[in-house]
Write a structure and sequence with these properties.
By secondary structure, the protein is mainly beta. It has three helices and 37 strands. Strands 9, 11, 12, 13 and 15 form a five-stranded antiparallel beta sheet that branches.
Length: 498
C-alpha cells in the first residue's frame, strides 16, 4: 500500500475520534465484513453549548458537569466551561477586539465525579464548553435555574447540547401571557446565518424578520418569538435552519401564571416517536405535533404504563395536517402512574416531530415542563445534576423487554458510586428505584447503560419546592455518542487493495 492510502486511513480514523462521526464509502461486497471489524473508540473532543439562563434578576443557576469513566481513553485531557464571548481560538472575543480570557466558570477534576458552579441574576451569559481526551466521551453539562417569582417562576432545566444546523421545536407559543425566546449560540470562529420559521394551526406564519439572522462568532442571540410575527398562536412549531455555520439552539418557554421551562429540540423527524417520563401526578398533558414532509400524518396514540400499553380514551389517533401544527389535550392521562407516550403511524409512515407540555398542580401552584420526542438511551446516557430526594428516573421499553444498568456517580462533594440493574418489560414504563451514592454530599450523576434487549428510552425529572410552589423540570436521556465506530486498519487495507 502506498503512503497516500495509509494517510487517508489515518485521517479518517482521526476525524471519527475527534468529531464523533465518520462515514466511509465501501464496496457492497465487503460492507458486512467491514462492519464486523469496526471498533468502538472513544471520541477525543466534545463541544457543548449552554444558553443564557434567565431574564429574571432573582434567578439562581447551577451548572453541573460530568464525564462517565470510559475504557480506552487517554490518560490526559481537560474540560472547561467558559462564557461564549471568551471562546475564540485566536484570543479575541465575539466583537473581534482583543480581550483577556475570563477564567472558566467550571473545570472538572476527574471523570466519574461531578463538578459544579453557580451564577445569579439576569446577566448570566451563554457558555461554550469543550472537553478533550479522557473528559470527552459522554461529557454532559446540565443547566438548572430556580426562579422564585414572576414570569417563568419555578424550576427550569436544560442539557447543554452540541451545535448543529437544524432544529424543530413543537410546543412553543406566542399566546397572551407567554414569553418565548429562541436562544441561538455560535461556538465557532466565523459568523452563522440562521432562518427561523413559525408554523401555527393554519400553516406558516408570515414573517420576514426571521430570515437571515446573523449570529456573530462566539456570541449568543435570544430571539423573542413575538417579534417575528404579530399573530397570537397557542401552539407553534419553531423551525431553526442554518444557512452557514452552525449554532446551538434551545427555546425558553415562560408563562405569566404557570411557570416555565426549557423546550429542547425534538428528535429527528420520524414516523414513530417516543416521549418518555410523564410524571405520574401530571394534572394536564398537551401533545403538540408537526409533519415536516408534504403529506398528512395519521398517528396511533398509546400510553406505556407500568402494567403495559394502553390507548387513551378519546385520543386513540391523531391526524396531523402537512405544514400545520396540531395539538390535543390528553388531560391527566397518566392517572397516578408512570407513563410514556408512543406515537406510531396508522397507515403510511410520515416524518413527524412532537413534544408534550406537562403541567403539575393546580391554580396558583401550577408549574410546567416539556418532554420532546427523543432518541433511545442506546449504549449509554447520563443525567448530570441530581439530588438525593428530588430525582425521578423513568425508563420505557416500547417494543421489547430490556435490561439496563443504572449507576449513581460519586457526589460532587463526597460519596461512593453505586450501581443497580433493572429489567423493563416490553410496552411498559417504570419509575425505577434509582440508586443514590452512599455517603452522598452535593449532587450526583445518573448513567443509564443498555445491557440487553430492545431499545430503552429515558427521562429524568428533578423537583424542588420554591416558596411553596412545586417546581420541576424534565430532561430526556438520548445516547451520549461517547464512542464512534471506526473500521480496523487491516480491513480497510484489504478493501482498498482490491
Amino acid at each position: 500500500m502506498n503512503r497516500t492510502t495509509l494517510s487517508l486511513l489515518a485521517g479518517t480514523a482521526a476525524l471519527a475520534a475527534v468529531t464523533g462521526f465518520a462515514a466511509l464509502d465501501q464496496p457492497a461486497t465487503t460492507s458486512a465484513h467491514t462492519a464486523e471489524a469496526a471498533a468502538q473508540l472513544p471520541v477525543e473532543r466534545t463541544t457543548l453549548v449552554c444558553p443564557a439562563p434567565s431574564i429574571s434578576d432573582i434567578a439562581d443557576t447551577s451548572y453541573t458537569s460530568f464525564t462517565p469513566v470510559t475504557q480506552g481513553t487517554t490518560s490526559d485531557g481537560k474540560a472547561q466551561l467558559r462564557p461564549a464571548t471568551e471562546q475564540s481560538a485566536d484570543g479575541t472575543g465575539g466583537s473581534g477586539g482583543k480581550k483577556k480570557a475570563a477564567k472558566p466558570v467550571l473545570t472538572p477534576k476527574a471523570p466519574g465525579t461531578p463538578a459544579t458552579a453557580d451564577t445569579s441574576g439576569a446577566d448570566g451569559p451563554a457558555y461554550v464548553g469543550t472537553a478533550e481526551g479522557k473528559y470527552a466521551p459522554g461529557w454532559t453539562v446540565q443547566e438548572t435555574t430556580e426562579v422564585a417569582a414572576g414570569t417563568g417562576r419555578g424550576l427550569q432545566g436544560v442539557n447543554c447540547t452540541p451545535a448543529d444546523t437544524e432544529f424543530w421545536f413543537p410546543g412553543a407559543s406566542t399566546a397572551t401571557g407567554r414569553t418565548d425566546y429562541v436562544h441561538l449560540t455560535n461556538p465557532d470562529d466565523s459568523a452563522a446565518v440562521v432562518d427561523i420559521e413559525l408554523y401555527g394551526k393554519d400553516g406558516q406564519l408570515k414573517s420576514s424578520v426571521g430570515e437571515g439572522i446573523t449570529v456573530q462568532p462566539h456570541a449568543s442571540e435570544p430571539v423573542l418569538l413575538s417579534t417575528l410575527s404579530d399573530e397570537k398562536q397557542t401552539d407553534l412549531t419553531v423551525h431553526v435552519s442554518v444557512r452557514s455555520g452552525r449554532v446551538g439552539a434551545s427555546v425558553q418557554a415562560l408563562d405569566d401564571k404557570s411557570g416555565g421551562d426549557w423546550l429542547a429540540a425534538s428528535a429527528d423527524p420520524s414516523g414513530s416517536l417516543v416521549l418518555p417520563g410523564i410524571p405520574k401526578d401530571a394534572t394536564d398533558v398537551r401533545l403538540v405535533a408537526f409533519t415536516t414532509g408534504d403529506s398528512d400524518a395519521d398517528l396511533k396514540v398509546r400510553l406505556a404504563s407500568p402494567d403495559g400499553t394502553i390507548t387513551p380514551a378519546g385520543n386513540e389517533t391523531l391526524h396531523v395536517k402537512s405544514g400545520m401544527t396540531t395539538a390535543t389535550d390528553l388531560g391527566d392521562v397518566t392517572r397516578g402512574e408512570a407513563g410514556s407516550l408512543i406515537l406510531t403511524p396508522s397507515d403510511q409512515s410520515v416524518p413527524v416531530v412532537a413534544a408534550l407540555r406537562v403541567t403539575r398542580a393546580k391554580g396558583g401552584k401550577q408549574e410546567t415542563a416539556y418532554i420532546p420526542a427523543t432518541a433511545p438511551v442506546g449504549t449509554r446516557a447520563t443525567s448530570a445534576d441530581n439530588s438525593g430526594k428530588g430525582t425521578t428516573l423513568s425508563l420505557t421499553a416500547p417494543t421489547a423487554t430490556a435490561q439496563v444498568k443504572v449507576t449513581a456517580s460519586a457526589g460532587s462533594e463526597g460519596g461512593t458510586a453505586v450501581s443497580k440493574t433493572f429489567t423493563i418489560k416490553a410496552g411498559t414504563t417504570q419509575n425505577v428505584d434509582a440508586p443514590v451514592p452512599s455517603g452522598l454530599k452535593g449532587t450526583y450523576a445518573l448513567t443509564v447503560e443498555t445491557v440487553s434487549g430492545g431499545p430503552v428510552y429515558g427521562a429524568r425529572t428533578l423537583a424542588a419546592t420554591e416558596e411553596g410552589v412545586p417546581g420541576f423540570t424534565i430532561q430526556t436521556l438520548p445516547d451520549d455518542r461517547g464512542t464512534v465506530a471506526v473500521p480496523e486498519a487491516d480491513q480497510d487495507v484489504a478493501v482498498l487493495q482490491k
